[in-house]
Write a structure and sequence with these properties.
The complex is a heterodimer of chains A (143) and B (147). Chain A is an all-alpha fold. Chain A has seven helices and no strands. Chain A has a single domain, classed as Globin-like (Orthogonal Bundle). Helix content of chain A is 70%, strand content 0%. Chain A is globular, with a radius of gyration of 14 Å. The longest helix of chain B has 19 residues. The chains are: A mainly alpha (143), B mainly alpha (147).
Chain lengths: 143, 147
């Protein structure tokens, strides 16, 4: 459960990213494809070269969606409702408990490389909980 | 038999040579106990684990973190025989400590994040991929003797 303190830390952390959404999203995806090659199976139609338009575009999409969720931490279910439908019925990405954890890990690594010491244990914990909550909501409609 | 490319070995060695084992180990273990509080169940006799500050300052956490990462260093010297290296520890974690192997994966991922925060942009995607492979294999080796 996200505490008030968690929510504050998440919003503060996101605020530090200063408009670098596209880069951060693209880098998180790139790292995910490299560390967890099976995740590429969901993107057979993508140009997988570094910095490709598709990876940048999709990375930005993902991070913008997360940013929107962060503005609605008190009602994640509603904020992510459309995406929940999409992931469950159209994309059918392996149940979020499994594949989305790889994205969570890679996004956190990107944040850690950018924030260094500022990615403190407390921030780490809040972000991890948040990504877990997002995965949970996205999984709601799977079956 | 796991295969390590020359590049992977180099990425592991170059990061490891700059790691302060005591500090990094302490931090990784502290984060495990903070981010995944249920893991505290294995450390009942560690004293005060009541808050992130308490955990980070706890001398037993620091000492144990150092022990864990020192053992990791042994794995790095024996990349071609991780299962052999961890055989006894695997038995210990199963038979005496009763640790669910899922926790090894959690600690491995946390270690990667600690390295990322420490090395920042030097912790490149290639670096991360190699280290995720390493922590995955270490977790696997530690789970190998479970029965």
């Amino acid at each position: 459960m996200l505490t008030a303190e968690d929510k504050k830390l998440i919003q503060q952390t996101w605020g530090k990213l200063g408009g670098a959404e596209e880069e951060i999203g693209a880098e998180a995806l790139w790292r995910m494809f490299h560390s967890y090659p099976p995740t590429k199976t969901y993107f057979p139609h993508f140009d997988m070269s570094q910095g490709s338009d598709q990876i940048r575009g999709h990375g930005k999409k993902v991070v913008v969606a997360l940013g929107n969720a962060i503005k609605n931490l008190d009602n994640l279910s509603q904020a992510l409702s459309e995406l929940s439908n999409l992931h469950a019925y159209n994309l059918r990405v392996d149940p979020p408990g499994f594949s989305l954890q790889f994205l969570s890990q890679c996004l956190q690594v990107v944040l850690a490389t950018r924030l260094g010491k500022e990615y403190s244990p407390e921030v780490h914990s809040a972000v991890d909980k948040f990504m877990s909550a997002v995965a949970s909501v996205l999984a709601e409609k799977y079956r | 038999m796991v295969h390590w490319s020359a590049e992977e070995k180099q990425l592991i060695a170059s990061i490891w040579s700059k790691v302060n084992v005591e500090q990094c180990g302490a931090e990784a273990l502290a984060r495990l106990l903070i981010v995944y509080p249920w893991t505290q169940r294995f450390f009942d006799n560690f004293g005060n684990l009541s808050s992130p500050t308490a955990i980070i300052g706890n001398p037993k956490v620091r000492a144990h973190g150092k022990k864990v990462l020192t053992s990791f260093g042994e794995a790095i010297k024996n990349l071609d025989n991780l299962k052999g290296t961890y055989s006894k520890l695997s038995e210990l974690h199963c038979e005496k400590l009763h640790v669910d192997p899922e926790n090894f994966r959690l600690l491995g991922d946390i270690l990667v994040i600690v390295l990322a925060a420490h090395f920042t942009k030097d912790f490149t995607p290639a670096c991360q991929a190699t280290w995720q492979k390493l922590v995955g294999l270490v977790a696997h080796a530690l789970a190998h003797k479970y029965h």
